[in-house]
Structures are given as C-alpha cells and as structure tokens.
Write a structure and sequence with these properties.
The structure is a single chain. By secondary structure, the protein is of the alpha+beta class. It is 27% helix and 36% strand. Strands 1-2-8-7-6-5-4-3 form an 8-stranded antiparallel β-sheet, covered by helices on one side. The chain is globular, with a radius of gyration of 16 Å.
Length: 166
Amino acid sequence: MPNAREGNPATLNPTSVERRSDRELVVTRTFDAPVHLVFEAWTTPDLFKQWWVPKSAGMTLVSCEMDIRTGGTYRLVFRHPAFDQPMAFFGTYKEVTANTRIVWTNEESADGAVTTVTFDEQAGKTRVTLHELYPNETARDEAIAGSAEGLPEQFAQLDELLAGRA
C-alpha cells in the first residue's frame, strides 16, 4: 500500500468528519481533480453508483434514480444480505447549481436531514464540504452511528474513481 510520499490520496487528502453543533455534521475532503469531474461524479447515476456505497458495508445499490435539478427528486434503493427487504432513501433537490452546490432533503423518515454539498476548486483540486442539518441531536447521532461512519470510505472510493477519470 502506498504511503503519503508515494501519493496515496487517503493520506494526502484525509476526510474530516466533525460534529459542528447539536444538529450538524460536516464532512470535508479535497480531491485531486477539477470541479467539473467531481460534480459529475455526484450527479451522474452511473458514476455515483460506483462510489456511493462503502465496499465494507456489504450492501449494493440496486436502483439509483436521480433527477438532479432544482425541484427534482431522487430515490436510492439498497440491498444488504442480512435484511429481507431493500432499504429506500429518497428526497427532493432544493438547489442545484452546476459545479458549485447541491442541496437535497432526506425524506425517508421524520428525522431526515437537509444535506448541502459544496464544491470549491482551487488550483485544479476540489474541496468538497458535505453539511447535514438534522431536526435534533438524536437524529444526528443515529446518522453518525449509521451511514455517516462510512463517509471516509465513500470519499476514498470517489478518489479512486476520479483518479481513473483524470
């Protein structure tokens, strides 16, 4: 496995996961790719499916419907071998600004967050900030114990995808 001197993106560009307040979770990472490629990986279903599910989770993304425009909707359906029924996550895109920002709701439960992802390019690299605002502290903590723990792995997978597309 390469170390930082050999160019391992996970070492050079670590993922930061921070509880910003009782209701907020903020995840940041810089990617060695221009903003248009990073944004495309977030907004093209075939690309999104390649990196969104942490490989270690043992889940598959069996359906990925994304109408990525302000007012559009998404529906992601996951399957895990340990569960009989697939799990669906869905919501509405509140704001989509190409290469800059995506805001969506998570409507699968009353405790769903509003997620804002911003893309900031500097010198050919893109800093991604994922900000989730939950209705309460309990919902935030449950998300951290669930899917949010996989975000560093997901972002490492995105790094791998981008490296192959650069």
